[in-house]
Amino acid sequence: MRARLREFRALPRAQKLLLCEAVVLIVASKVLLAVAGLEDAERYFGIVSQYLPCHRQSGSPESVRWAVLTAGSRLPGTYDCLDRALTGSTLLVANNLPHRLRFGVDTQSETFEAHAWIESNGAVLIGDVDDFGRFRTLTEREVRG
């Protein structure tokens, strides 16, 4: 625990702020998705993105990716692709970064499996998996920052 705290303290101020925002958003996504559903969670996060301290700062897609993946892997509990995608999309919007939020299903497995991911600059930014070709996009949202 102390090592993680030392790591956090060593980060530049902008990264600390971005990571704290990612932590709050990923936990909120877990709760909102369970209580209110995807549509309401997206609407709420759309409003929240306008008021985040990082709003209108020069964050990069890679820094948002780092913050979301770090928050999701270091917090207790399980945060799935949808939690990460909503968090990442919110932070990208707050930093004025365009991206695509995609939702798809596995077309090769006998069991149902859904997946959510974010693409930025033509590449998967958040939600990359080993066998990505098995997912077919059902819906996508082009999000302007």
Secondary structural class: alpha+beta
Strand order in space, largest sheet: 3-2-1-4
General form: globular
The count of helical stretches stands at 5
Give me the strand/helix succession: HHHHHEEEE
* Backbone CA Rg: 15 Å
What's the mean pLDDT score? 90
Give the distance, in angstroms, between the N- and C-terminal Cα atoms.
35 Å
**Oligomeric state:** single chain
Main sheet characteristics: 4 strands, antiparallel
Low-confidence spans:
none
Can you count the beta strands?
Answer: 4
Which strand-content bin applies to the residues?
A: 15-25%
Q: Count structural domains.
A: 1
What share of the residues lie within helices?
Answer: 40-55%
Task: Walk me through this protein's architecture.
The chain has 145 residues and is α+β, with helices and mostly antiparallel strands. It has one domain. It has 5 helices and 4 strands; from the N terminus they run αααααββββ. It has helices spanning 2-10, 13-35, 38-48, 61-74, 81-94; strands at 99-106, 114-120, 123-126, 135-143. A 4-stranded antiparallel beta sheet has the order 3-2-1-4. β2 (114-120) and β3 form a beta hairpin. α2 (13-35) crosses α5 (81-94). The relative contact order is 0.15. The mean pLDDT is 90.
In short, what is this structure?
Residues 58-138 form the Microcin J25-processing protein McjB C-terminal domain. It contains 5 helices and 4 strands. The protein is an alpha+beta fold.
Quick tags:
single chain, 145 residues, alpha+beta, four-stranded antiparallel beta sheet, globular
Layout: helices, strands, pairs:
Blueprint: H1 2-10, H2 13-35, H3 38-48, H4 61-74, H5 81-94, E1 99-106, E2 114-120, E3 123-126, E4 135-143
Antiparallel strand pairs: 1-2, 1-4, 2-3
Helix pairs in contact: 2-3, 2-4, 2-5, 3-5, 4-5
